[in-house]
Amino acid sequence: MSQENNPQAPRENESTEAAKVPSDLIVKSALVRTQLAAENTLMAWIRTAVSLYTFGFSITKFFDYLARQQEASRLSGGPRRLGIALICVGIVALLFAVVEHVKVSRKLQELGLPITSRLSLPIGSAAALLVIGIVVLVSIVLNWPL
């Protein structure tokens, strides 16, 4: 059976077409995929930090509410400290994630990734959530009503 009659047989042009793709395009597409993976990782850390903020804030406010309802029996400060600790861990984790993301992005730009924008949506979201986390932490420590 000849190659013309066999549709599964590789054609001479097909094997050379893959070799015709410029290596520069392959490298740039790999850099773009790596950048997208880095943004995905940052978004996962954002989700984790928001969860820690939420748990810390909820624990603190719930036990503050219980303390106000049961004025005769004073609750220990353990749950409040746990809530504050969770918020602090969320802030620190998000801060480290942003720093790591910026390092990876700069390294990718050194390797030839084209710069599309100075700020990305995940970086802006992370910055806003860092500010929110710090405000929530300060409000809980200083007993501001929220």
Main sheet makeup: none
Mean pLDDT across residues: 83
Helix and strand element order: HHHH
End-to-end distance, in Å? 81 Å
Q: Tally the helices: what do you get?
A: 4
Identify low-pLDDT runs: none
Evaluate the radius of gyration: 26 Å
Number of strands: 0
* Overall 3D form: elongated
Oligomer: single chain
Count structural domains.
1
Task: Assign the structural class, choosing from mainly alpha, mainly beta, alpha/beta, alpha+beta, or little secondary structure.
Answer: mainly alpha
How helix-rich are the residues, as a percent range? over 70%
Proportion of strand residues: under 5%
Describe the structure in brief.
The chain has 146 residues and is mostly helical. The protein has one domain.
Using brief descriptors, characterize the structure shown.
146 residues; mainly alpha; 4 helices; 75% helix; elongated
Question: What this model shows, in words?
Answer:
The chain is mainly alpha-helical and 146 residues long. It has one domain (12-141). It is built from 4 helices and no strands. α2 (23-69) runs antiparallel to α3 (78-110) and α2 packs parallel to α4 (121-141). The chain is elongated. It starts with 11 loop residues before the first helix and ends in a 5-residue tail after the last helix. The mean pLDDT is 83.
